[in-house]
Design a protein that fits this description.
Strand content: 15-25%
Number of strands: 10
CATH class: Alpha Beta
Radius of gyration: 17 Å
Helix content: 25-40%
Number of domains: 1
Order of helices and strands: EEHEHEHEHEEEHEEHH
Number of helices: 7
Structural class: alpha+beta
Amino acid sequence: MKIVSHEGATMFLAPLSLVAAMTFTPSPAVKVPDPAVDAPLAAAPGREVAVLSGGCFWGMQAVFEHVKGVIKVTSGYSGGDQASPSYEEVSTGTTGHAESVQISYDPSQISYGQLLKVFFSVAHDPTELDRQGPDHGTQYRSAIWFSSPEQQRIATAYISQLEKASVFPSNIVTEVSPLKAFYAAEDYHQDYFYHHPYSIYIIVNDKPKVENLKSEWPSLWKEYKG
């Protein structure tokens, strides 16, 4: 059966029996420390929002939907000036937008800094410039879109902390910029990980990230069925 890959190229989906027989070994998660600068947990339940970019939003959405304290994750676009861009337009790499996720979370259960720990540890590789895995272009860049001075302070401090500790073999290239806007992606992109569990792209590129979250940060893990 033919499917369409993330970049629009034609791929073929292996028979289910073949997929089931294949063994995929997830890449190890990068062990990162807790942020030295972070917001304390709120005294009462609430709702705050973080917007992050780290390559294909299918995997990013799936990872953060499994994080304790996260209420909702939406795939979409941020970073450019074009209003309400389409997937096809963003995929040209000319809109300035990056594939992103909007994470609504309860600050009494998880902090902004802990979300960034997941972001840097298992959700993507922050040392890859304008690419992530098989996807290339500025629309796949690593970025943190802050919506408050506190988010900016926590993000920049954490990157500095990770760099000083030489956590990664290469420099972190994550952009830290003010959030202009977030535009939700088309419906067919939402929860793509769960709607297409046998997609070769999902199995090879995104399933290992979710597995790494569960094994590396069990205290942050929650079940999610899509």
